[in-house]
From TrEMBL:
InterPro entries: DNA/RNA_pol_sf, DNA_pol_Y-fam_lit_finger_sf, DNA_pol_Y-fam_little_finger, DNA_polymerase-Y, DNApol_IV, IMS_HHH_1, Rev_trsase/Diguanyl_cyclase, UmuC. Monomer. It comes from the Bacteria. It holds the Pfam family IMS_C. It comes from Candidatus Staskawiczbacteria bacterium RIFCSPHIGHO2_01_FULL_41_41. Keywords: Cytoplasm, DNA damage, DNA repair, DNA replication, DNA-binding, DNA-directed DNA polymerase, Magnesium, Metal-binding, Mutator protein, Nucleotidyltransferase, Transferase. CDD domains: PolY_Pol_IV_kappa (cd03586). This is DNA polymerase IV. GO terms for molecular function: damaged DNA binding; DNA-directed DNA polymerase activity; magnesium ion binding. Poorly processive, error-prone DNA polymerase involved in untargeted mutagenesis. Copies undamaged DNA at stalled replication forks, which arise in vivo from mismatched or misaligned primer ends. These misaligned primers can be extended by PolIV. Exhibits no 3'-5' exonuclease (proofreading) activity. May be involved in translesional synthesis, in conjunction with the beta clamp from PolIII. HAMAP family: DNApol_IV. The gene is dinB.
Length: 369
């Protein structure tokens, strides 16, 4: 049976969900990300809706750059951007509903991130039939959640994912196996998953811009140029991808980080933020139904952006769900060990120049499923 693989990715996900939750925001430019208080913010944009993207705002842009672009637009008489904080609980809920909808139509579904899903529709028997099913899925998501998504259908995950990105937003694109090469050849090499800005730069410098240009390289040449990634680039440029759809991803770590409202040397302020953060991270862990964890890592970024981490591993898992070593005990040890890792950054031990702190992060690692 011919393989028919689909990739579904929500459009401007966080921003679209926010827009639909508050009807008065519909049609407005929206950026979701770290907070801006009285025109000052220090983090980045998580995402922007397509209207705000028209102002040049995009994911990972410093929030203040986005603010400036919004101010410029406002001075030109356009709508100013609505800045909203991130509400993960809400996006997770919508994400779970989307997964449920897809599961009604496909037996094998992989959730690849909060807003992207792979599913297998080989049993539909033809690309035309798979396309009809995907139209239904799109319509149902739109009806239930009032947000749009883009779907790519192809002979494997690689082609499906690229196809989903081409017609955004609200797109649907089918690329059959025999069309893969002509589909890929004219695309910029950056469209290939795994070719990031640095790798792309190496190729651009040699005049290699399109996926089709990569075909001139032998497997060995690519390995010489790219090391172990060479083989994978060789395959992807030819549209080859055998990776299976895997329903369950093993969660290896859970963490978070917070940029402080202002850089500070005050240990009480740092600890206060750190405590809130670590409570949240532990709550995510305990809600995840895991049986324990064997590592903790703490990150501190100083005002000069120098970033340092410390971690600790445990022989026996903590946070386990059995009466003798209860979750509560696990939590106590977690809090204590996290604090032990943080403290040296609050004095001269790990901060000899007494630099102000800009960001703190904590991660629960080596999670036992
Ligand atoms: P994406 O699917 O990459 O982006 P998107 O859904 O906002 O927009 P597109 O229409 O291009 O798919 O990411 C999904 C969500 O993940 C996004 O809504 C917010 C979050 N995210 C971040 O928090 N930081 C990031 O740098 C990126 C890329 C995404
Ligand atoms: Mg998306």
């Amino acid at each position: 049976m011919k393989k028919i693989i689909c990739h579904l990715d929500m459009d401007a996900f966080f921003a679209s969900v926010e827009e639909q939750k508050r009807p008065h925001l519909v049609g407005k430019p929206i950026a979701v990300g770290s907070p801006i208080i009285e025109g000052v913010g220090r983090g980045v944009v998580s995402t922007a809706n397509y209207k705000a993207r028209g102002y040049g705002i995009h994911s990972a842009m410093p929030i203040m750059t986005a603010w400036r672009l919004s101010e410029e637009a406002r001075k030109q008489g356009k709508d100013e951007v609505v800045f909203l904080p991130v509400d993960f609980a809400l996006y997770n809920k919508v994400s779970a509903h989307v997964l449920e909808i897809i599961k009604k139509y496909a037996a094998l579904v992989e959730q690849a991130s909060v807003d992207e899903f792979y599913y297998d529709l080989s049993s539909a028997g033809s690309f035309a039939k798979a396309k009809a099913i995907c139209k239904k899925i799109k319509a149902e998501i739109k009806a239930v959640e009032k947000v749009t998504c883009s779907v790519g259908i192809g002979p494997n995950k690689l082609i499906a994912k690229i196809a989903a990105g081409i017609k955004k937003p609200d797109g649907l694109l089918v690329v059959e196996g025999k069309q893969s090469r002509e589909f890929l050849n004219p695309l910029d090499i950056r469209e290939l998953p795994g070719i990031g800005p640095k790798t792309a730069e190496i190729f651009y410098k040699q005049g290699i811009n399109k996926v089709g240009d990569l075909l001139a390289f032998s497997r060995e040449q690519l390995k010489d140029l790219m090391g172990k990634h060479g083989e994978s680039i060789f395959q992807k440029a030819r549209g080859i991808d055998d990776s299976p759809i895997t329903e369950f991803h093993e969660v290896k770590s859970i963490g978070g980080q917070t940029t402080l409202n202002e850089n500070t040397k005050n240990p009480i302020v740092v600890y206060d933020i750190f405590k809130k953060l670590s409570d949240g991270v532990f709550a995510s862990f305990s809600n995840g139904g895991f049986s324990g964890f064997k590592g903790i890592a703490v990150t501190v970024r100083f005002a000069d952006f120098q970033t340092q981490s410390s971690s600790k591993s445990f022989k026996e898992p903590l946070g386990v769900r059995d009466p003798s070593t209860s979750l509560r005990t696990g939590r106590k040890i977690f809090e204590l060990e996290a604090l032990r890792l943080l403290l040296p950054y609050l004095d001269l031990q790990k901060n000899p120049k007494s630099k102000p702190i800009r960001l703190v992060g904590i991660r629960i690692e080596k999670i036992v499923p």
